[in-house]
Amino acid sequence: MAENAVFISSIEHSKPTIFEIWAEESFKSTLQQAFQLLCDFVRSKLPDETLGRSKVLRLFFENPDESFLIFNFLMQYTYLDWFSASFSESFYGMQRVNAKNPTERMNAKAKILSMLGLVGVPYLSVKIKAIIDRYVFATGQRQDTGVKLLQYYRVLSFSLRIVELYHYVSYLGGVAPYHSVLHRIAGVRLVHQNQPTPTWSDIYNLFSLEPRKSKLLGPLAFKVVSQSFEIGAFCLQFINWWNSSDSEALKFNRTPIPEVVESIDSGNVCPICLGPWKNEVALGTSGIVYCYSCILKAHSVTGKCPVTNLPFTMDDLIRLYPSAS
């Protein structure tokens, strides 16, 4: 009886709480945004001549989704291979094990399915949203198609939310060992890492005259790599927090007041192409109206308003619908 109680206690202790899982998923959802902010910062520091000469750099900065796809693939594959966990799961001290037998590590099939869930699903989700936005901002029949696609996407998103809620409740009640449908498909569950983490004081033992000092090389190498990724993740999170549009105080101190430009009011003319507006959109950071295709190109090149030079994102674009009269 006592032995069974000890066994149950150890199993429950190794199971992450729902709050730890929410924290891990929240951290994972900010990685692409932080990666994009870091790329924008690096690009702003590079001279135009360097970008003009290097085709690789142009492809990297002009295709942010594909760039993050490659980066995310390499990072997640490394962590799954070394730590049996994704980057965010390892950051919070979790690892993936066989759902039916927690004492077994992931097999090759589970790693492949895990990579599809960690890398493929987020990339497809971003691309589907971009396609829907492109259709919604179009005109005529393409816009009607975009509205229908948006409705279908909302229904699908709501259905996935229900499935996600079901797995959360099942995991919280102890009915299922996995908290998401992606973990169910991969046949894995999350547990706490039970191996002791090496400390920096072990470096002293590495240089001592102990006969088994070579055994510390592997754990210390993992320590260095893991610590480097953690510091990098903290820097990315800090950049994301610093540039967060939700922080009004930071936004007030960071965003300069645009200068008054006399040539803005020039009739129904786009300041970029100097022609009549086509699919006009207003830029929320400056209030200036552009053609959608023109401001889309400006965002891909500089990420700043061509008139006021203020930074903006695609979420700052406001679609305008002129009256029929």
Automatic annotation (TrEMBL):
GO MF, one annotated term: zinc ion binding
Pfam families: Pex2_Pex12
GO cellular component: peroxisomal importomer complex; peroxisomal membrane
Topology with respect to the bilayer: Multi-pass membrane protein
Top-rank taxon, per record: Eukaryota
Chief place of localization: membrane
Keywords on record: Membrane, Metal-binding, Peroxisome, Protein transport, Transmembrane, Transmembrane helix, Transport, Zinc, Zinc-finger
GO biological process: protein import into peroxisome matrix; protein monoubiquitination
InterPro entries per the UniProt record, alphabetical: PEX12, Pex_N, Znf_RING/FYVE/PHD
Pathway membership, UniProt: Protein modification; protein ubiquitination
Cellular location(s): Peroxisome membrane
Role, per record: Component of a retrotranslocation channel required for peroxisome organization by mediating export of the PEX5 receptor from peroxisomes to the cytosol, thereby promoting PEX5 recycling.
Family stated for the protein in its record: Belongs to the pex2/pex10/pex12 family.
PANTHER family found in the cross-reference section: PEROXISOME ASSEMBLY PROTEIN 12, PEROXISOME ASSEMBLY PROTEIN 12 PEROXIN-12
Entry protein name: Peroxisome assembly protein 12
